[in-house]
Structures are given as structure tokens and as C-alpha cells.
Design a protein that fits this description.
The protein is of the alpha/beta class and 331 residues long. It has 11 helices and 11 strands. The longest helix has 20 residues.
């Protein structure tokens, strides 16, 4: 940071100390993309209020908080879709998209707190509408489930397990074709998936191996842990640079944390990251200046009745987002 403004000769512009874009915190209390658990709705819709109660706004020094109304969860199939809550997900996604695009166009940095992973669709549409392109998808699972993996007369698809497939244009038009953008929300070559922990299992290729046939860049949890999260993040940044991507959306499913420290998600597992590793990954990506906004998903407070994980999550999220690159200003 320079101590005073410096005149730039011949330009009539003064350089002013750079500062990071202010954070706009968006609360997206959705559980629409998850299946019922023991006949009950999943509890991810409560995550925004619990993390706010644990001090998230102050930790992020957010300049504003935008609250979306909780959408109604339906147990039965909706008309014209085999995806659970498909109609409601589309409506909620479009409402979320409006908030995201307004924030990006205003020169602020949206941090969206879900909710389940289906919120990615609204975030990514909003980013695209505001001139963004590309996706870094951090998740302990590739979320590449498609119709052939779930379509039976008795089973509805869960969007939270197919958000990356939907974002890349695979699936029902209701959740793959979007106003003014069409399909896909992100081209395969503009997507990086980080954190899949099952890719080395014998069942992966048979059940979920479609992603292996795409141009999506994939970094497994195992490879990142061996290489180191900062080195891996720098490799991702080099990929974004090579693709000319400088307004990329960042999606973080908190099940990428190892189950030993984060059991309060719908699909805990391992290997995964610890809090510092995830913060370093998010922070290195944000410090590149190529991330336009981020969402964090899948924390379920009902699996954390004492809320003992909430403060650690707040610290992890804030530590990563606080490292976002400064933006030079002129006066």
C-alpha cells in the first residue's frame, strides 16, 4: 500500500491505494437439491442463519447482507420434471441470479452461503449475465450424476448430486437452458473440478466416469494433498490464464473437508482437506484476481446440534475470501 497518491505523468490520473472489492453476503437458504432423510427435509437451509450467528458478516467485513426467502420443499414429483423440486430450483436460481449479477455489476464481490449445491446454477447464471465465464468446482464429489444414474419410475433425481453436470449442459432443459445464456452455463474446457475423492475407486468409472470423457480439468483430492493445495491452486490459475478466464465463479462444497473435522454434511468422506488447506486453496485462487465471486454449500446444522463446527467454518471461509486480490482505483 502506498502512503499517498502518486501522479501519473501525462494521464491526469492519480494512483490511489488499492483495496479489495467489498463483500456482499448473499444468504440462500435452500435444501431443494437434496433427498429427504428419514422422511424429513434436509437441514442445509438453516446454514446461513447459523453461520451468521457465528459471526460470518463481521468476519468477512461484509458491506451488505442480501437475504433470499426460503423456498418451499416438496416431497412429491413436480410437473414436467424428474428432478426433485425442479420447478422450484429454476425459480430460486433465477432469483439468486438477479442478486449475483447486480452485485458483480456494482463492482462488489458476492459470497453466497447455501444451502445445498443446487445454488451453483443461480450463482453461475448471475456471473454469466454480468460478463463472467468459467467455473472452479471444489467438491469432494464430481457431482456429475446424469439421468442414466437415477432415472427410474420410483426415483427422482437430486440436483445437488448433479450440479456440475447441469452447469455443463447435461440434463433436463429446465435446469440446463437459461435466459439470455442458453446452454451450457460453463463450457467443459472452462471448468476445473478439484477434490473428487472417489476417482481411484473401482466403481467410479462405471458409475460416474462420464466426466473422464470430457475436457473438464480434474484434480483429485489425493493428487492435491500430494502436490500441496497452494501448488495445485497455482496450477489451476495457470489453466484459467491459458483459457483467458478472468471472471470465474468459485463453488465450494464443504464436504471437501475431511470427515474427521467436518461430519455435518450430507456425504462426509475422506480423504479431504483440513480447514487451513481449504482456506489456502480458496485464498490462493481469490488472490489471483480471476475469481469474481464464490458460494459455499452443504453444511447441515441439524447434523451439528451443538453448532461446534460453525465457528471453524466461519474462520475458514473468511480466511480464504479475505485474501482476494486488491483492485487499483483511480481518482
Amino acid at each position: 500500500m502506498v502512503a499517498s497518491a502518486i501522479f501519473l505523468a501525462g494521464s491526469g490520473v492519480h494512483a490511489v491505494p488499492a483495496e479489495a472489492k467489498r463483500v456482499s453476503l448473499v444468504l440462500a437458504p435452500s435444501n431443494l437439491g437434496l433427498r429427504p432423510e428419514n422422511g424429513r427435509q434436509p437441514g442445509t437451509w438453516r446454514a446461513p442463519q447459523v453461520l451468521m450467528g457465528a459471526g460470518l458478516r463481521d468476519a468477512l467485513d461484509a458491506s451488505e447482507v442480501v437475504r433470499l426467502e426460503r423456498p418451499a420443499y416438496e416431497f412429491d414429483a413436480q410437473h414436467h420434471t424428474r428432478i426433485r423440486n425442479g420447478q422450484t430450483i429454476r425459480a430460486f436460481s433465477l432469483a439468486l441470479s438477479e442478486r449475483v449479477q447486480d452485485i458483480v455489476r456494482a463492482g462488489r464481490f458476492p459470497v453466497v452461503i447455501g444451502g445445498d449445491c443446487s445454488i451453483l446454477l443461480g450463482c453461475l447464471h448471475g456471473s454469466r449475465m454480468a460478463g463472467g465465464r468459467g467455473l472452479v468446482h471444489v467438491d469432494g464429489h464430481s457431482d456429475f450424476t446424469q439421468a442414466k444414474s437415477y432415472a427410474t419410475p420410483q426415483t427422482l433425481g437430486a440436483a445437488a448430486g448433479m450440479d456440475l453436470a447441469l452447469a455443463s449442459g447435461r440434463g433436463e432443459p429446465m435446469l440446463t437452458v437459461w435466459p439470455e445464456v442458453g446452454t451450457p452455463l460453463a463450457e467443459d474446457a472452462d471448468i476445473v473440478q478439484i477434490g473428487e475423492r472417489g476417482a481411484e475407486e473401482p466403481w467410479f468409472e462405471q458409475n460416474y466416469g462420464d466426466i473422464l470423457e470430457t475436457a473438464i480439468t480434474q484434480l483429485t483430492a489425493q493428487s492435491v494433498l500430494v502436490e500441496g493445495v497452494v501448488a495445485s491452486a497455482r496450477r489451476v490459475i495457470a489453466r484459467l490464464e491459458a483459457r483467458g478466464l478472468d471472471k470465474v465463479w468459485l463453488h465450494v462444497d464443504l464436504d471437501v473437508l475431511d470427515r474427521a473435522i467436518m461430519p455435518a454434511v450430507d456425504s462426509p468422506g475422506g480423504p479431504g482437506f483440513n480447514y487451513k488447506q481449504l482456506a489456502d486453496l480458496v485464498g490462493t485462487l481469490c488472490a489471483s484476481g480471476r475469481i469474481v465471486g464464490a458460494n459455499f454449500s452443504i453444511y447441515d446444522p441439524e447434523r451439528d446440534p451443538d453448532k461446534r463446527h460453525a465457528s471453524d467454518l466461519v474462520g475458514c471461509i473468511a480466511d480464504g475470501i479475505r485474501r482476494r486480490a486488491p483492485v487499483a482505483r483511480a481518482s
